[in-house]
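General statements about sequence and structure are easier to judge against a single worked case. In the encoding step, the backbone of a single protein was reduced to a row of integers, each denoting a local shape. The record that follows shows the chain in one-letter code together with its fold in token form.
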Amino acid sequence: MRKQFLLVAILAFVFIASYSGYAYACGSASCSAEKSGSVAISPASAEEESELEEVEFANVFAVDEEGNEYAVCPISSSAFKVSEGTSYSMVDGKGYYYCCAGCEKPFQADPEKHMSKMKKTMAEAQKKFEKGERPGESHM
């Protein structure tokens, strides 16, 4: 009985959170409830956009036939489709996409801590991708 109540409470919380427009993309302690799309990081100029195209993103595991990139967040290990507003940063000369802006600082603080889990998750996500499964877009 207690387990059923807990399950119902969790489902209610998830429903309310998603209905109100707030996204808890990764569930990690670094993420906070932020309005979807409110933390978009995008290049400020055409020159910066051109430079971004030349950046190697280390956590991209696939590109579909339309040129859409798919990445794994190094903190939450969630797979997602990269969109125009996806958060990213540079670490040791490589780019990393994040499921939300809250994952950027913890990764920058200690990237090595998260690398092995990220690489394992990328391999699993790539296998699913090859079978036709496509993750959704990051909205944070």
Remarks:
- Helices lie at 2-19, 46-53, 104-109, 111-130.
